[in-house]
Amino acid sequence: MNFVNFLIGVTSFCLLLLLTHSASLSGGDEVRAPAPQCPTDGSCQLPTCHCASTTPPGGLFGPNVPQIVYLTFDDAVTIVNHPFYASALFNRKNPNGASISATFFITHEYSNYSLVHDLYRKGHEIALHSITHTTTTQYWANMNESGGLTWECSRPTYTYRKPGLWPYTNDFRSIQDCQIAPCPDEAFPGFWTVPMLDFIGDDGFPCAMVDECTPVPKTQQDTFSLLLRNFNDLYTTNRAPMGVFTHSAWLIGPVDRPEFAERMAGYLQFLDHLGSLPDVYMVSVSQALEWVKNPTGVADIDTFQPWAPKPEATNNCVFPRNCRYDNSTWERFMSACVPCPLNYPWVYNNLGVN
Ligand SMILES: *[C@@H]1O[C@H](CO)[C@@H](O)[C@H](O)[C@H]1NC(C)=O
Ligand SMILES: *[C@@H]1O[C@H](CO)[C@@H](O)[C@H](O)[C@H]1NC(C)=O
Ligand SMILES: *[C@@H]1O[C@H](CO)[C@@H](O)[C@H](O)[C@H]1NC(C)=O
Ligand SMILES: [Zn+2]
């Protein structure tokens, strides 16, 4: 699996604040000075540094900026939602002929790793939404630095939704509004923030995740128009990347409640619409960041390697193991691509060794 580009997603009931570098916020030993304002003298340069801004990178403008859309899904991948992911995502292509790529913010409990591997193999991004899915902000605020994270996607913005804020590095002070305090104000050179640009629901209220928007759409038409309206807010302005952040539970539900099938039809209609536009690319968050680091206009986009068509990866999970763990009060099943760990993997014992 792609364990290089980890990150934390956020849900309405799961305000995971990624503070992996924030010793001063967590009351750790290290107190760091606030980051200075972003310089205008050219000392913050791509690909390693990028100031928070609504201006497209690389001096690109207008219709030469490809409109990036990241489709993301939070939480466990299971036999319930994988068939939807396969049918909705596996056969779509971007205008350059490459398969689209979505980002899955995965939590450990109930995830089926045989199916996670399948998503990865089909070119989708496997990203981190924590092992425990702990929902108390304080738990995350007390965390110290962890290794290997290069970006996070957990910070909503209302102020910079239209025109939208582009992803930026934390070398310098962010201009972004802080909806969920505390937000880091120290410098974290080279570490990217991928802002969650708020949608506006039909009632006029903002929503960072589309499944939080109110009123919850109940027809295909209302779902499609919610997505389209928020897409056009960016497509017709500065073309900042649009995140369609959701859970499969917005689209999959009991058959006796037709609103789920309606929403799914509206969501798929929206993907069909995006697929009909010559300058819209549905790419993973990491692919989007590669583009921001190396901005390439629509006119030259076929030369942009990180978005180029790729052969499907080999199946390294031909014989998944079905592992079972239990005690007198608790039971979990885990499909693994490796021999069953002795113990159920968990935080501080993620390999499940004794
Ligand atoms: C971070 O926390 C973990 C778990 O509490 C601890 O084992 C580790 O030593 C800490 N690392 C630092 C750099 O403080
Ligand atoms: C059973 O396992 C769960 C998960 O590890 C744990 O929370 C619980 O305390 C255990 N119960 C008993 C009776 O050992
Ligand atoms: C995980 O998915 C595989 C299909 O690849 C299936 O055979 C297996 O039963 C699933 N395991 C669980 C625990 O649902
Ligand atoms: Zn979640």
TrEMBL record:
GO molecular function terms noted in the UniProt entry: hydrolase activity, acting on carbon-nitrogen (but not peptide) bonds
InterPro entries reported in the protein's UniProt record: CE4, Glyco_hydro/deAcase_b/a-brl, NODB_dom
GO-annotated biological processes: carbohydrate metabolic process
Signal sequence residues: 1-22
SUPFAM superfamilies xrefs: Glycoside hydrolase/deacetylase (SSF88713)
Keywords: Signal
Coiled-coil zones: none
Pfam families referenced in this protein's UniProt entry, alphabetically: Polysacc_deac_1 (PF01522)
All copies of domain NodB homology, residue ranges: 66-138
PANTHER family xrefs: CHITIN DEACETYLASE-LIKE 4 (PTHR45985:SF3), PTHR45985
Name of protein: Chitooligosaccharide deacetylase
Organism: Folsomia candida (Springtail)
Upper lineage: Eukaryota, Metazoa, Ecdysozoa, Arthropoda, Hexapoda
